[in-house]
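pinning this so it doesn't scroll away 📌
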Amino acid sequence: QVQLVESGGGSVQAGGSLSLSCEASGLTYSSYYCMGWFRQAPGKEREGVAAIDGDGSTTYADSVKGRFTISRDNAKNTLYLQMNSLKPEDTAMYYCAAAGPGLGSDFCQGDLEAWGQGTLVTVSS
């Protein structure tokens, strides 16, 4: 059974930084999967933030390009998201996910296989 557990959320002032982690278990051949982060703010639709394919290629939403960096350590089955220059509009619940291979414009292209419970990021002005 696939399980994804996020950590690292919290509260920060605008301009600050946070680092999110996501530990995956139960993924056979984890490097096969595209891994990504999506977020959902209260009253808003879910949106892709960033994704990284098994070969290390990445994609980002336009709203976070140049501020966020996604990375993965396949040996540790861990996904990361470094968030810098945070803005109040980045406030949301952040979820990590595993999907079939391939990248879209701001997230994985493949079907979602699993996602975590989420970690809350709050950015104050």
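📌 and the second one:
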Amino acid sequence: QVQLVESGGGSVQAGGSLRLSCAASRVAYSRNCMGWFRQAPGKEREWVAARHTGSGFAAYADSIKGRFTISQDSAKSTVYLQMNSLKPEDTGVYYCAATPRCADIVTMTLGRNDWGQGTQVTVSS
């Protein structure tokens, strides 16, 4: 069963940092790729980062490149998103996703069972 539980969201001032965690079931973690996308109020979903859990290859959206880092702890079936130098435009609900291909996260080609409930991130100016 695919289960993804996000945590670590919160409120922070611009320039601050947060680390999100995504605890995955074994079934979810075995899907080869895990990543994050976000959705701000009134906006479309936007992919943020994706990481192939086997090779460690990671890809980042241009909007967050150099500020966010995706990492994994395979022993815990957990993926993290370290977010530094946060900006107000980073505000939104952040969702963890698990898919067979990282291209699915990059193109936001996701089924409803591919992501968790999300965690809110609010960045104030």
